[in-house]
Amino acid sequence: MIRVAINGYGTIGKRVADAVAAQPDMELVGVSKTRPSSEAYIANKRGYPLYIADIKKKPAFEEAGIEVAGDVEEMLKKCDIVVDATPGGVGKDNRKIYELFNVKAIWQGGEKHEVAGISFNSSCNYRDAYGADFVRVVSCNTTGLCRIIQLADEAYGVKSVFATMVRRGADSRDIKKGPIDAIVLNPVTIPSHHGPDVNTVLPSIDIVTTAIIVPTTFMHMHVIRMELVREATREGIIDCIRKHPRIGIVKGYTGITSTAELRELASDMGRPRGDLWESCVFEDSLSVGKNNEIYLFQAIHQEADVVVENIDAIRAMMKGADTAEESIRITNEALGLKAI
Ligand code: NAD
């Protein structure tokens, strides 16, 4: 069994923890919090050993009735690999302690590529992470872009990509972020950082991206144009997407044309927390232009798509599966993920 710890049990950390606990070849040895909170309470409820960053705060946890197993250093002694899901910019400072305790580590997209030197997406570069000590799983937006670009590149060759990310303003429980009534150019400069981030995984792709933020909490929407090398048909692209284990098709007959309806669909499907781990490409948006370029809309659940990638990164780094296909199959089966 691969022994996994989660440092930072927040939006991403709690989801990765549940996904680890569901895997047949992984054991969750613990999760960490900085202060007593509803998430600390839930960790106890789920039977996940709870470790804390500052052991001096143990009495505060105990007063709240929350059981503490020890400090983060003790958690690191028990694991083979740690998933760092602390807030963006915090994780990089933890590298020293991971090195000290000789554990492998995975960071999230809020950290820079340099924190690990390998940026990861299961379908694109699984073997780059094979046996590696340090890996960064790219952000939710970059994950969504990488999946669809790699699919098109493999099938037809991609000459260039232009994509606009319409981003959610905040995660649903985040009461401190906005906007409430604005469309924000973020950044106002073109291109945005997402294109270069795609290049950390797919270095040869010619890509320009822009990004704006809107007042919603569930999912990002991507508007994508890809110029292809070989002649493509709409049916051919749909066929490739059908075969992809992490890209789903929002079928035309469903009448779904919004993220709100996708949230309802995820809930109706009984997905935990209403999570959509797969990218959701709108079938009716897919079209091929006269210069052999394709256009599409895809919705990306920001809190969910990177979760399954973290699980594959663990398996790659621990040499638990030789190929991406094998790891993706195990991860998806354990979670009951069959792309929509
Ligand atoms: P979050 O704020 O929801 O959770 C972070 C958790 O880390 C919190 O529980 C916090 O208490 C804990 N923490 C803070 N400092 C800590 C420390 N020093 N030691 C241990 N724990 C500490 O953040 P998040 O949204 O889960 O983001 C985590 C990472 O994932 C970031 O790099 C972010 O950019 C990336 N990411 C987030 C999303 C998203 O939509 N939320 C999507 C993809 C990637």
What's the layout of helices and strands?
Blueprint lengths: L1 E6 L3 H12 L3 E8 L4 H8 L4 E3 L5 H6 L6 E2 H7 L2 E4 L10 H6 L3 E4 L11 E2 L1 H4 L8 E4 L2 H17 L1 E11 L15 E2 L8 H6 L7 E8 L5 E9 L5 H10 L3 E4 L8 H10 L10 E4 L4 E2 L4 E8 L4 H13 L6 H12 L5
Parallel strand pairs: 1-2, 1-5, 2-3, 3-4, 5-6, 6-8, 7-8, 9-11, 13-14
Antiparallel strand pairs: 9-12, 10-11, 12-16, 14-16, 15-16
Helix pairs in contact: 1-11, 11-12
The site of nicotinamide-adenine-dinucleotide has 27 residues, from helix 1 and strand 2.
Task: Give the tags.
340 residues, alpha/beta, Rossmann fold, Dihydrodipicolinate Reductase, domain 2, 2 domains, eight-stranded parallel sheet, eight-stranded mixed sheet, 12 helices, 16 strands, binds nicotinamide-adenine-dinucleotide
Overview in brief:
The chain is an alpha/beta fold and 340 residues long.
Largest pleated sheet: 8 strands, parallel
State mean pLDDT (0 to 100 scale).
97
CATH architecture of the largest domain: 3-Layer(aba) Sandwich
Question: Termini, distance in Å?
Answer: 30 Å
Sheet with the most strands: spatial strand order: 4-3-2-1-5-6-8-7
Low-confidence stretches: none
Number of strands: 16
* Succession of helices and strands: EHEHEHEHEHEEHEHEEHEEHEHEEEHH
Number of helices: 12
CATH class of the largest domain: Alpha Beta
What small molecules are bound in this structure? nicotinamide-adenine-dinucleotide
Structural classification: alpha/beta
List the domain count as a whole number: 2
> How much is the radius of gyration in Å?
20 Å
Work out the strand percent: 15-25%
Could you name the CATH homologous superfamily of the largest domain?
NAD(P)-binding Rossmann-like Domain
Question: In the CATH scheme, what's the topology name of the largest domain?
Answer: Rossmann fold
Give the overall shape, derived from the CA principal axes: globular
